UniProtKB/TrEMBL annotation, chain A:
The gene is modB. This is Molybdenum transport system permease. GO terms for molecular function: molybdate ion transmembrane transporter activity. Part of the binding-protein-dependent transport system for molybdenum; probably responsible for the translocation of the substrate across the membrane. The keyword Cytoplasm does not apply. It comes from Candidatus Galacturonatibacter soehngenii.
Automatic annotation (TrEMBL), chain B:
InterPro entries: AAA+_ATPase, ABC_SmlMolc_Importer, ABC_transporter-like_ATP-bd, ABC_transporter-like_CS, P-loop_NTPase. This is ATP-binding cassette domain-containing protein. It comes from the Bacteria. The keyword Nucleotide-binding applies.
Length: 223, 358
């Protein structure tokens, strides 16, 4: 059996997760501290979670496709994003972003505001407070968010097939490979990939529960 | 030198309007919960922004709405002890104390060691806040605050999370600290006893308005307003009508009261503290006395609390009727109550004990 979908899936999911962490956590912190317009920003940021992935893919094509301004700009440097693994990464980032953002924001908003005020009156800069107080005290929730993000990125199908296609050995991830296998009547191969995905997803949920239980244990007795 | 505050802020239920000046002493603000006490402290610390006004600490303008000055909390150099202490749960005791220090590593270590010693935290350096008792947590919080070398200390209901025994102990420690570090201290509480023991100057806040700041003897012995009397623990009040300069009619008690002080036209209430009411053994009618029936007797730790109601006999259609009115609460040492107890008592409100209130 060709294991290239497994490798591509992991490459795409890991890169997407890292990008989502880098984008999602600061964004969540900003939104958590917003006083006005929170609902609007939150609505926009959460959209990809509720939209059909094909629509996300459609918008992505509009944005990075060969005929889009950005696509044309990249063409000058002989770069095409569509139908590459990078397009698959972008699709996964957009789709999994709301999961990271919402988990992190929930955790940030649950932090006792007095901790932040105390940090400020002690002369700590807001960035130091975020790094040394907020992040360490929300780590468990954030890790749970990372696991969710990874699981979502790994399972991404709709947007991926629209922007990255189904090129074996290049952009064919496990979820896309299952689709191809079923279409081509290769039952054994589809069973194998389904088992792999289910194992990974189940493992993710277990580890997520473990993180959130650890959080409860940690906060016990803290005033 | 000192703190000057004159601010206004519109809040959900009322508008906060606070102005006072303090020097190097301890000022307490007494107020019920939701009266705007904590909001005042937060405005001074820079956590909340007043709508308008001015806050000056020593020679630094912290906030001035006209000059558009509004320093960040980080620039204000104010020590704030939060009600729940707000210790960083992810840091050890040492790390909590060190976090506010701006110094080299070596200096930090000596400073932290010094604070650990002076706040009796030896042996707890590596512990997390969740592993400490309430009293220890408070000590760490104070040590952390003092270590950052603030110009003024603000204590927000510091004892509310402690049980009564620990409360007393921590109160003594805080008094020691105030004495040792000689920092101007702003103390906020709803507990009149704490406020009385801790500070020399007391202000009363109600519905966002800081009504007056005065020496503690004044406010407890001679509160000027109704709310001041309530907050300092007075239990008995009556609405009054002025009869002449030294005489008022008490609506709720249905008697005339002779006063010691002349009654000004602003006076609307008369109050008397539960332990200032005398029970007399005489049947004659005279001023400042009132016949009452006993409604309830509450056995307190060292005293007896008696709830009574005024009693008046009247005749209607040839039938004797009894009216009850105006509940009054009195409190006296147990043995004294034993001497005078009965189903009916005669109360005397001595003129010296009457509080004339606006």
């Amino acid at each position: 059996m060709n294991i290239s979908p497994l490798i591509i899936s992991f490459k795409v999911a890991c890169t997407a997760t890292i990008l989502t962490i880098i984008l999602g956590i600061p964004f969540a912190w900003k939104v958590a501290n917003m006083k006005k317009g929170k609902g609007l920003i939150d609505g926009i940021a959460t959209m990809p979670m509720v939209l059909p992935p094909t629509i996300v893919g459609f918008f992505l094509l509009l944005l990075i496709g060969k005929n889009s301004p950005f696509g044309k700009f990249l063409l000058q440097f002989d770069i095409t994003l569509t139908f590459t693994w990078i397009a698959a990464v972008l699709a996964s980032v957009v789709v999994s972003f709301p999961l990271m953002y919402r988990t992190a924001r929930g955790a940030f908003e649950a932090v006792d505001t007095n901790l932040i005020y105390a940090g400020q009156t002690l002369g700590m800069s807001n960035f130091t407070i975020f790094r040394k107080v907020v992040l360490p005290n929300t780590m468990s929730s954030i890790l749970a968010g990372v696991v969710l993000t990874f699981a979502r990125a790994l399972g991404e199908f709709g947007a991926t097939i629209m922007v990255a296609g189904n090129i074996p050995g290049r952009t064919q991830t496990i979820s896309v490979a299952i689709y191809s296998a079923v279409q081509g009547g290769q039952r054994e191969q589809s069973y194998a990939w389904v088992a792999v995905i289910m194992l990974i997803s189940f493992g993710s949920i277990i580890s997520m529960n473990w993180f959130s239980n650890r959080e409860k244990g940690n906060s016990k007795g803290v005033v | 030198m000192g703190l000057h505050v004159d601010i206004k802020k519109t809040m959900q239920n009322f508008s906060l309007q606070v102005s006072f000046d303090m020097g190097c002493e301890t000022l307490s603000i007494l107020g019920a919960s939701g009266s705007g006490k904590s909001m005042t402290l937060k405005c001074i610390a820079g956590i909340e922004t007043p709508d308008e006004g001015r806050i000056v600490l020593d020679d630094t303008i912290l906030f001035d709405s006209k000059q558009k000055i509004n320093l960040l909390p980080q620039q204000r150099n104010i020590g704030y002890l939060f009600q729940n202490y707000a210790l960083f749960p992810n840091m050890t005791v040492e790390e909590n104390i060190a976090i506010g220090l701006k110094a080299s590593k070596q200096e930090k270590r000596t400073l932290v060691e010094e604070k650990i010693k002076s706040f009796y935290l030896e042996g707890l350096e590596k512990k997390k806040p969740s592993q400490l008792s309430g009293g220890q947590q408070q000590r760490v919080a104070i040590a952390r605050m003092i270590a950052s070398n603030p110009k003024i200390i603000m204590l927000d209901e510091p004892f509310s999370a402690l049980d009564s025994y620990l409360r007393w102990e921590m109160e003594q420690e805080i008094l020691d600290i105030i004495e040792t570090y000689k920092k101007p201290t702003l103390f906020v509480s709803h507990n009149r006893d704490e406020v009385y023991r801790i500070s020399d100057l007391i202000g009363v806040i109600d519905q966002g308005r800081l009504s007056f700041v005065s020496e503690k003897k004044d406010i407890f012995e001679n509160p000027k307003t109704f709310i001041g009397a309530v907050l300092t623990g007075c239990k008995n009040f009556t609405r009054i009508k002025k009869v002449n300069e030294y005489k008022v009619y008490a609506f709720d008690w249905q008697i005339n009261l002779i006063t010691k002080e002349p009654v000004s036209n602003d006076i609307q209430y008369v109050g008397i503290r539960a332990h200032h009411i005398q029970v007399i053994d005489s049947n004659e009618e005279s001023d400042n006395t009132m016949l009452c029936t006993v409604k309830k007797i509450i056995d307190n730790t060292f005293t007896t609390i008696i709830l009574v109601e005024g009693l008046r006999n009247s005749q209607k259609n040839g039938v004797d009727k009894q009216h009850n009115y105006g509940e009054i609460r009195l409190e006296m040492p147990k043995n004294e109550w034993e001497k005078v107890k009965g189903n009916q008592v005669k109360l005397r409100f001595i003129p010296e004990a009457l509080l004339l209130l606006e």
